[in-house]
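User: Sequence in, structure out. Go.
Assistant: Echoing your sequence, followed by the structure tokens.
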Amino acid sequence: MKAIRVHEFGGPEVMRLEETSDPVPDAGDVLVRIRAAGVNPVDTYIRAGVYARKPALPYTPGSDAAGLVEAVGPGVTGLAVGQRVYAIGTAAEAHGTYAMLAVCRATQVFPLPDRVSYAQGAALGVPCATAYRALFERGRAEPGETVLIHGASGGVGTAAVQLAAARGLRVIGTAGSDRGLQLVHAQGAHHVLNHRAPGYLDEIIALTDGAGVDLIVEMAAHLNLDHDLNLLARHGRVVVVGNRGRIEIDPRRTMGKDAAILGMTLFNATAADLRRIHAALGASLANGTLTPVVGQELPLADAAKAHAAVMEPGAYGKIVLIP
């Protein structure tokens, strides 16, 4: 089979499409023929060698995918050859989803409804699970609260808008382009603001009649966190999903409001957490309240282009690779 392989940490150019042997599932494993693989910002950090987790070299990047069950190992029940599925990781860190085939643990594979395309299925793992965990497990969002989703036009942001609106939250979303603003509005946001426009922070305060927002899902803390603390209501929370550098903040802004800054990474979710999260996501997929947004599909050979694109400003849905 063909797969993207990384033999040294570095820029996007270190990813190469190579011929490798077909993997074989072991006991408790599922072999998935990949129809689409998701590209996430964390994939670029790992490839560059700057992330806390470093796989042994050489390795194949990727954790998100959708496709068909090719084979199952001994002891696997509830999954059948030919079944449409999405995957949220692989059995071995060195053999990711940027490939034609991947071996996953059975606990990492979930049914993909017919209404959801393979490309959309590849957008479920990291983006939708991150959005759910940020909103409801770390952020403790409740119906009737107001949530601000900074950078709402990307893969995590669009999922967060859909999930929050379906749960009865009042959603304010931001984006940095007209195309992105239209996308966020179409996902169900009640108010959409351009975070490049002067004075947009004052608009957020005005939309809450001066009370502030209850929860902020923050995709770019290095740019926004200090301002976020001014936007919070009493007992407000900021969940930091994304950050690309250091920032100076004034902690006093948290004190008078009993506000909280909460970090989050999906890597800290336990197996029980993931079962719960994907049970909820599966229900949302089935009832139509969650439909992942795919912004760009690229051939597997263009993995380097995908890694460059996922880090550019003006996010628009999910980028996926098609083997």
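User: And one key feature?
Assistant: Residues 127-266 form a domain with the Rossmann fold fold (CATH 3.40.50.720).
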